Amino acid sequence: MGKPTLQEAIERVVQALLDRNPELAPGIAVIAEHVALMARQHHPAGGLSASAAIPAPDGILTPQPSAGISKTEHVPEPASSSQSARIVDHRPSQPLSSGYVPLRMPDGTVKQVRVSGTGADIAAARFSADEPAHGETDEGQARRHQPPNLSLIAARCELKVEGCAASIDRRAVNGTDREQEEGRRIGALINRGRQFDNCFLWMVYPGKAQPDDEQMRLIAAAYANLASAARVCERVPRGAQVDRRTTALELLAESQSALRMALTNTWLTSPDKDQDDAFHYLDDSTTYEQIFIGRHMKLSDPADPGEWESLRERLAAFGRELDDVEANVKKDRAVVSRIKHHARLIASDPAGEHGHDWERIEEALGKLSVGRMRDGEVLNLLRPIAGTPPEGLPNVARAIAGLRGREHGESPEGDGDRYSDAVGRVRDMVRGRRMVIVGGERREEAAARIRSAFELSELEWVELPEHSSSAPAEAPIRRPDTRIVLILIRLAGHLHVEDVTAFCERHGKALVRLPAGYNPERIAAEVLEQVSGKLV
Description:
The chain is α/β, with parallel strands linked by helices. The protein has 4 domains: about 130 residues, no CATH class; about 150 residues, no CATH class; about 80 residues, no CATH class; about 120 residues, Aspartate Aminotransferase, domain 2. The protein has 19 helices and 6 strands. Strand 5, helix 17 and strand 6 form a beta-alpha-beta unit.
């Protein structure tokens, strides 16, 4: 056999590499596309075959960017969000485009590599690159499925607001002595943008026809509102009070939709990264938290960017509401600390004179926000001294009555052992059977109350730490006497929710997703709504 040609040698090496590591195929394809793009850019016409001499499409960055533009910046994806996959795009397709594709390295890190090709080629490469790597751990997969970073979205949007203002000012001074000064300002903005991942300041990109001043101001307002919505949503994280969390997500949905519509008439042909990330955050959150957002989550229900002032005012009002909540939490912490201090003094010397300490506890209980007097933390502080309260302290008397009610399995709403008809209906369905709860940490008090309310033969609570395997949950679910499975979706990881759903389907068990709370009344309401037909 003669000496192999260069092409044959490369083919043999690549084939051997793929035989040993088939998961490297998407990465090798990306590298090949990148090399081809470089060749086409440096030899646009001559020296290449007809198939290779395809010019780079209009609008993509070449290896020699204009002054002040980062070599790593690129045109982001459509201004129509990933929702655009649900509709037919009637715009004429271009034969060739470019984009960035994630390339997973052997150490698990991901690098963004720019490639060229048809839109279908790039989409396929991205899809392949997003598949779990061969041998990847559950922890690695969970890390890659983390929702978009709200702080990053807010920071990039705030910088884009400045970019919109700079674009307007540059147009105003074009051809004057201030033109160079504005150029330096824009250069400084771009340098700041390099501090963030995927921050493309398209509004100062040279050589493109930018929107007029009025439209650019509208876009700036839309970016400002999305930044505010992201920061508000960050203040109401997963696991927060349901109504408050829902409001935060609704404001985020309206903000990202308004931005998408504001960008419709720009030169962008791909979604803005921040609008797209915000949509993905919403999609992820509503799916796993089981929160329904009724508006602005579909292309057919867009938000009006012209209503930006109203949205800004609602965001500000909700922010003030959160300020009040946080102030109450801070105040409650101080009050609880005071109760703790005086309760310890009483407990340390039960026979002593503690009239002053009891008065301070009475006063502190009266200052707690609504609901905190019945809070388990507060009641537990009173437990060691519950047998010695003096007369004439109504707040203390109510708190100790609540403590004794909890100890006897009464509902936290103060109805004693009297539950609603809904609890009674579910009790008839599950009486004498096993219930399995998945997620969070077992609370003996709550477990006893649930078991008593539904007259269960057994309640098994499966704790699954974050990023741990879901396997321990399958055996309790599989048991023949398991009647119903509850999963606390706010306290379980995304993969746990998916796995438990699969276990229940595999073994024919009724699964109830609890979005918030697990007292008997909440459980009964969710059971009747979600699986009552399966338990008849």
